[in-house]
Write a structure and sequence with these properties.
This protein has 128 residues and is mostly helical. The protein has one domain. The chain is built from four helices and two strands; from the N terminus they run E-E-H-H-H-H. It is elongated, with a radius of gyration of 24 Å. The model has no long low-confidence stretch (mean pLDDT 81).
Length: 128
């Protein structure tokens, strides 16, 4: 079932209702891997996975997998509308953002504080 369909009697295409992807396909296998990854990240951050969060996880994983497949087809040169690809990617990014995944920020190494006189001496070679 295609993700986009023509509405009866109109010239524009609309997104179909959200349906789960077939887990036997490449998109489905990617979605399963993403579900496992998102679930592991959320449980590691201490969140409990209830039914509502599980539904959000599956929706986000499906949208990310579909948008990646859509972009892949566009890059291969298949007839894919770029605006549809961008719409899918925005929807996927929004779904992932709604999950509230923890972000791993690298800790910046603090440079040792140095006095200005020592810095000038180092730069000009005036070692005391």
């Amino acid at each position: 079932m295609p993700l986009f369909s023509k509405a009866p009697g109109k010239h524009t295409q609309h997104l179909r209702r959200y349906h789960r992807v077939d887990r036997r396909t490449r998109v489905g296998q990617k979605s399963v891997a993403l579900v496992a990854d998102y679930t592991a990240k959320l449980t590691a951050s201490g969140r409990t996975i209830d039914a509502e969060l599980q539904s959000l996880i599956h929706r986000a994983a499906d949208l990310v997998a579909i948008s990646e497949e859509h972009r892949l087809r566009w890059m291969r040169g298949d007839k894919v509308y770029l605006d549809r690809t961008m719409q899918l990617e925005r929807m996927a990014a929004r779904a992932v953002r709604d999950l509230g995944l923890p972000t791993a920020k690298p800790e910046a190494e603090a440079e040792p504080e140095i006095e200005i006189d020592d810095y000038v001496d180092q730069q000009h070679g005036n070692a005391a």
